[in-house]
Amino acid sequence: MAIRLPCRPLVLTLLLSLAAAGCSSGSGSSGADGKLTVWLAVEAQETWPQLVRSTNDRFAKEHPGVRVDVQYQQWTTKNQKLDAVLAGKGVPDVVEMGNSETTNYIVNGAFAPLDPARFDQSDAWLPALADACRNDGRTYCVPYYVGARVGLYRTDYFTRAGVPGAPRTYPELISAFDKLKSTFGSQDPNFSALYMPGRYWYAAMAFVKDAGGEIAVKDGDRWKASLSSPKSVAGLTEWKRLIDTYYVGDRAKDNGDQPGVVAQGRVGVFYGNTWEADYAADEHSGGDPKLKDKFATFPFPGPSGKLLPPFLGGSTLAVPAKSTRKDLAADWIRMFTDRESQKTLIAVNTLPNNTTQLAEVAAGGINGPAAQAAATGGWMTPFAPGWTSVEKSNVLPEMLERIANGKQSVQDATREADRRIDEVINER
Known about the structure:
The protein is an alpha/beta fold. It contains 19 helices and 13 strands. The chain is globular and about 70 Å long.
């Protein structure tokens, strides 16, 4: 999900250590007693701890004598820790991975293959998660949950500006921006009808995808960057037009502090995850409690006439190839991701791992538009072995900053970005 880490040192160490250990075969279960170690990201601890508890209770009934040790990891350090333990001993038996983190680990033999038939609703897994788990016809991880970005707006600002409701089409969206800018921008030169900082690449790439472009495409067995293609350039050109017209702020920023900025009251609409509305009204997260219940969400329309394709960022669960408890690990994942567990995630405003249960998300709730956006299929970063290196090099945010600040044309910036991406995207 959030942070991707360099993979080249991992690759060399893994290939040597995995080969030496002979860890790619066998069930790996070492008996009925002992400990199963599970690494989950902190979201599980903070937002759905009841799901972790109920899964552990179910697991204990089926596997008495096996203690589950859940260890919560920060996204910023998880992969560094994982790389270190994969090179030695004492690996976790289950590890959570962002769906754009998996490819390099899979192609280098870090995860054990899993039988998808063992897991509930595997035939309906969201492609953005399922595709991240597959390689050469085999499955190496299990989808866990997903998130989709939508439009979030101040309902009181819409009322004061005479906007009748959530925009359903791109012309309605532009009309709403114009009314917000006219009503509030004339009074406050720092008001943004649309808050969309220059380095927010998840937003900008959605416009690329909406125009029919891609970050990179696969040509045979190799990936090739395609940001300078005519369709990608068209998407970025429209993105720049929007921020030139409706965004007031630092073009060199990303969206990391977006809820806090929105909480200052100078934003009409922003593009983000639904939980960011809660953060904008939470004083513990730098928000303003006076903004509670003043936000609503809508599926963000795209210039193409369809919904803007959202980046479907989510998590998967994998079993390291060096685990000695592969069968037990897979069984814990089975319980943690089945349809009853997915209902628990839906109840705490998190999108499920499958298309069938997207329909169970309340259409009128704050996450309803996110479910509608996710149902379109969204988009994902390329499942290329060197994608972690691409993200680490900051090619995309640096390209967007130059475009947003007018330091380079869209054509020149994308050509340079393509060159940089091509240098690393096929690395293993």
